[in-house]
Amino acid sequence: MCVAIPGKVLEIYEGNSLVEFGSLRKRINTSLIENLVVGEYVLVHVGCAIEKIEEKEAMETLNIFKELMGDF
């Protein structure tokens, strides 16, 4: 089973971005995502952003993770 986690883009660099997952911030490879803008949400799998998603979908998914795992 593969799991992708939504994260919010905080800063954009060449080929990667600083992405926030709850209280955790990580540099993520975003080279596959075109026209990425600070504040957008991306799905991240194994350290690589695989697609953009809407904020509403990101919040719904994060709430499901919180219910399953507690705050992360």
Automatic annotation (TrEMBL):
<dbReference type="GO" id="GO:0051604">
    <property type="term" value="P:protein maturation"/>
</dbReference>
<dbReference type="InterPro" id="IPR001109">
    <property type="entry name" value="Hydrogenase_HupF/HypC"/>
</dbReference>
<dbReference type="GO" id="GO:1902670">
    <property type="term" value="F:carbon dioxide binding"/>
</dbReference>
<dbReference type="GO" id="GO:0005506">
    <property type="term" value="F:iron ion binding"/>
</dbReference>
<dbReference type="InterPro" id="IPR019812">
    <property type="entry name" value="Hydgase_assmbl_chp_CS"/>
</dbReference>
<comment type="similarity">
    <text>Belongs to the HupF/HypC family.</text>
</comment>
<protein>
    <submittedName>
        <fullName>Hydrogenase assembly protein HupF</fullName>
    </submittedName>
</protein>
<dbReference type="Pfam" id="PF01455">
    <property type="entry name" value="HupF_HypC"/>
</dbReference>
